[in-house]
Every structure is written in structure tokens, then in C-alpha cells.
Write a structure and sequence with these properties.
Length: about 375
């Protein structure tokens, strides 16, 4: 007797289960974050409101000013503030350099918010400009990630070969079919560690520059680096906004370079962390499925192999999903129809130096990294199935 659920494509069931679990975990993560930030920031907000009401009452009483008139003036200043008018002098917002800084924050999706278009024509142009610019920049980040992964793969392979030579396993023996290099899988945790160290070094160096030029304390500079590099872009702290700096041109160039390198490294790090999250989701789903002794469709049991949980319900299932921290091998990737992030394939194939051809015919939808790759793989699978 066939089960309706199990008769569906197995990868579809697994993807739906993974999607639902991830959505539930993200919702739980948001709820926990809301509780923490509310507990940390809400008392400070109440104190600020209390201080402002007290200052406003004292000012109107001492200067015999009508409170309603003062509130109208403050409202007008808020509107002027949005157009770039400040009490202290800042650099022009819409000269060429200011406009260039603005479009850079648009296409990078940072969007600090300290400069925004106020005209109808500017807002309409922003919609089309951002649509193309953001898409092109995301493609640039993905291509950058591919090159970073390629470089790291060669470095990690070189280190592994050197380790084999020291242990006496190099030379011709290391090139045999049963060679340990062929079965070696670069660890995703090492990639995450290297990218994390690189991002930290860039953030620390940039923070030293911002502390000196912007007169921020070092922690505030680190806070700005994370907000900017992760493209969160709150806009409460923004660099290069004063009217004049010492060595102004050099500082603005350094600021742009630090933000560019930081965004690329953090984007790459997020992609690697997403793979670890996906492995964790697979492990959780495997634990949840352990209660089923047999598959209703095939009648073949689940089995545990070390730390890896596999299912033999279907020949197209991924036999290589592991939570061991290692990337799946080329053989595992090529012999299974698996929708994994292409970052795994990129790292493993580059480390081996001779990527093998997939049995799935190519149709122009392959390649890429991260979310870009997942979209391409899904298009490829759909077109092949048709």
C-alpha cells in the first residue's frame, strides 16, 4: 500500500521539511531577539522620552514660548533634516561625491538612510536604478565568492599535500585511485574560520581608521563596521559625513575600499555559515525521522553510519549529507541528485583539481554560488525533468 507522502519526489519532501523547519527556527530566533532587545533598549527609550519632556517644559517656561508653536517648529526641522539640513555643518549631500556615496549604498544594499531622494522623479529613478544595480552587485559578490573559494581550495590542498609528504604518503602513492587525496574533503569549518579571520582583520583595521578620523571610540567603530559590512545599514552611525577631514581624499578612498572588502568577506562568510545551518537542519530532520523504522513505500529501513544518517528509500537520495564538518566528496555530489549549495561543489572540485562532468546534461542553468546557485540548480532540475 503506497503512502501519498512517500510517493512524492523524495527531494521535494525533504526540501519542504527543511524549509518548514528553517522558517520555524527563524521565527523562534526573531521572538528571542525581540525579547532580548526589548529588555535591553526599552528602559533607555523611556528615560530618553522623560528627559526630553522635562527639557521641553523647562525651555518653554524659561523663555515664555508657546509649546504648540515650538512643536510646529520642531516638526518643520524634522522635515528639513530628511533633506540634509543639519545644525552642524556636514558635507553637501547631492554634489557629485555625495551622490556617488549614495548610489554606492544603494547598489550594495547597505542603505544607510542619511541621504534619500525627496523628489518624485528621484524616487522613480531610484526604483529602476536600484533594480538593476542591486542585481548586478549581487552577481559581483557571487563571482567574488567563487574566486575566494578557488583560492582557499588551492591553499588547503597544498597544505594537505604537504602534510601527506611529511607523513610519507606523498609522491606516486598519493596519485593512485585509492589515494587519500581523492577521498579527502576540505572542511567547511576551515573555510569559515579563514573567512572569519579575514573579516575580523578588515574590521579591526577599519575601526582603527574610523576611530582616528571620525573621533569614535573603538567599540562604536567596530559596531559601524559590522552594520555596514553586513549591509544592515541602520544609518545611526555613518562614516565620511563631515565637511572636512585631514587627508580627506585619501580617507574617503580608504573608507570605500574597507567597505567594499568588508562587504565581500562578510557576504562570503554568510554563505559558508548557511551551509553549516543547512547541515544542521538535515541532522535535525534525520533525528526526527529516526522514529520511523521503515519507509512506508519501499519497506527498507533507515540506517545510521557513524555520525551520518542515511536513507535508502530511493536511489536518488543524497548518501553524502553529513554533519561531520567536511564538504561532500565529488563522487557523492555527482552520483546523487542533490540540491546543495554549489559552494560545496566548488571547493571540493577545485581542491581535486579535476572536476568531473555531471551525468545531468548542462543547459545553461548551472554554475554560481550561494542563493544564485540554488536558483540555477533548481532551474536546471526543472528543465531536465520537463
Amino acid at each position: 500500500k503506497k503512502c501519498r507522502i512517500c510517493c512524492l519526489p523524495l527531494h521535494l519532501n525533504e526540501d519542504n521539511a527543511r524549509f518548514g523547519l528553517l522558517a520555524a527556527l527563524i521565527l523562534l530566533y526573531l521572538l528571542c531577539g525581540a525579547v532580548v532587545f526589548s529588555a535591553l533598549e526599552h528602559p533607555s527609550e523611556l528615560q530618553a522620552h522623560s528627559r526630553w519632556d522635562e527639557q521641553l517644559a523647562n525651555f518653554t517656561e524659561q523663555n515664555s514660548i508657546n509649546l504648540k508653536s515650538l512643536e510646529v517648529l520642531l516638526k518643520q526641522y524634522e522635515e528639513a533634516f530628511a533633506t540634509g539640513i543639519r545644525v552642524d555643518k556636514l558635507r553637501p549631500r547631492w554634489d557629485f561625491s555625495g551622490a556617488f556615496y549614495f548610489v554606492a549604498t544603494v547598489v550594495s544594499t547597505i542603505g544607510f538612510g542619511m541621504t534619500t531622494p525627496v523628489t518624485i522623479a528621484g524616487k522613480i529613478f531610484l526604483i529602476f536604478y536600484g533594480l538593476i544595480g542591486c542585481a548586478a552587485t549581487i552577481l559581483f559578490f557571487n563571482l567574488f565568492l567563487e574566486r575566494i573559494i578557488t583560492m582557499l581550495a588551492y591553499i588547503m590542498r597544498w597544505c594537505h599535500e604537504r602534510q601527506l609528504r611529511r607523513s610519507g604518503m606523498g609522491g606516486e602513492e598519493a596519485r593512485s585511485e585509492d589515494d587519500s587525496l581523492e577521498g579527502w574533503k576540505p572542511s567547511v569549518y576551515y573555510v569559515m574560520l579563514i573567512l572569519g579571520i579575514a573579516a575580523l582583520l578588515i574590521a579591526c583595521s577599519a575601526s582603527a581608521l574610523y576611530s582616528a578620523m571620525e573621533e569614535w571610540d573603538y567599540f562604536e567603530s567596530l559596531y559601524f563596521c559590522f552594520v555596514a559590512f553586513s549591509t544592515i545599514g541602520f544609518g545611526d552611525v555613518v562614516s565620511s559625513q563631515r565637511e572636512f577631514y585631514k587627508a580627506q581624499e585619501a580617507y574617503r578612498l580608504g573608507n570605500c575600499l574597507f567597505i567594499l572588502m568588508g562587504v565581500c568577506c562578510i557576504y562570503s562568510l554568510f554563505n559558508v555559515i548557511s551551509i553549516i545551518i543547512k547541515q544542521t537542519l538535515n541532522w535535525i530532520l534525520g533525528k526526527l525521522d529516526c522514529s520511523r523504522a521503515q519507509c512506508p513505500c519501499r519497506g527498507r529501513p533507515y540506517r545510521r553510519r557513524g555520525q551520518a544518517l542515511e536513507t535508502v528509500c530511493d536511489s536518488e537520495t543524497d548518501a553524502g549529507r553529513r554533519l561531520s564538518g567536511e564538504m561532500i566528496s565529488v563522487n557523492d555530489f555527482m552520483t546523487n541528485k542533490v540540491s546543495l549549495a554549489i559552494l560545496q561543489k566548488q571547493l571540493s572540485e577545485t581542491a581535486h583539481g579535476n572536476p568531473r562532468q555531471s551525468h545531468v546534461r548542462q543547459n545553461g542553468f548551472s554554475g554560481g554560488v550561494g542563493a544564485f546557485a540554488i536558483m540555477n540548480n533548481r532551474l536546471q532540475e526543472t528543465s531536465v525533468e520537463r
